[in-house]
What does this fold into?
Amino acid sequence: MQNIETNLAEFINSHYSIRERKSIISHQQSKIVIRFKLRYSKPLSNPIKTIYVRLRVNGSPCTDFSTGIRIEATQWDKKLMKIKGDSEKTEVQNTFLRQIETDLLKFHTNLIQQGVRPTAQMLSDLYTNASIKSAVDYELLDYARKFFEYLAPSIEPDTLKGIKSRVNVLEDYLSKTKQLRVPLKIISPGWVLSYHKYLTTTRKAGLDHARRCAALISRVLDFAVINDDLENNPLKSLKLPRSKRKPIFFLEESDILKLENYPHFSPSLQKTVDCFLFQVYTGMAYVDLSQFDAKKHLKKEDDGTEWIIINRAKTGSSSQIPVIEKARLLLEKYSYKMPVFTDQRMNINIKEAAKIADIEVAEKICTHTARKTAGTFLINRGLPLHTVSKILGHKSVKVTESYYAHLMTSTIKNNMKSVGLL
It folds into this structure.
């Protein structure tokens, strides 16, 4: 076993009582004897034997412990305490025996240097405890890259690009702070808070970006726990601040009417406007619209009601969208295949179209504005939050509420009026 980095003080504190710890503190010299023996188990006629370690410190022994190596008795050189032969397997086994000896001597020396009087049983406990644990100290950066590779086949390119960016930011931090080899097991809330401070001060990142970067580390630790490479995630209870949520930007109904009724858009702009309006009518995000396939996602009930059932690319959550008349007419116009351009081209075109239609906030409009407008329209029409959440494909009603809670006042007022309380 190689590269053992056991915290001896921590081990002693966790395995010995205060009285026992006091009794082992000493600066006396200590003598260690390490021998390897064959254990002759029953039946004695069995030619295969196990090599055990026999350990004595200052003449006092402990219970022998197994090396895990099994050989024929005739292969053992009792005098030299090694396995006979020159095969590759034999060489590896003999090297392993020498490494056990080296590790025990290392533990013994380290204890002496720390002012501890070691016993044979203590050294045996230290060695077997280190053996049970993995000899590998998994490093944060390597594991972050492993997590990225795991995610790559299953998430959208834009989302993956964001995660890759956060991995690069982490690598930059570790490089600048000379922690490129930092192991997973020392990551703590305090360590992440230092990273968060670096992001918000040195890199001048916003609170939301810094929070996402820190959240990546927590996800990496969760991944390590799932893979049994870490016992637990110490960041579970860590809560980092986020920026105050800005009021959502959406179009008024009068603006939507201008887009619907303007008669002279060019063919390219008209297609963009129609896609934008389809988003307004359905609440679909651009990426979901670009992946929309009527054959897969359009369902029709016996009473003629049509639904778009589609999993959101961003979260995987299901959106259950009733197809209103205006949306159905657009689908029919384009033979149920919306003419979607690239996101960049759509954003350029919708701004131009909004200017032509004399919409004052034209410069602020993008494809995402359509989704926010849809949510706002539904909330202001008095639909319950859980219904809006299902249509928009949010993971939970809390997500919907966090975005649209400030719009609920008009809904509450209308509901109060409907029952005669206002």
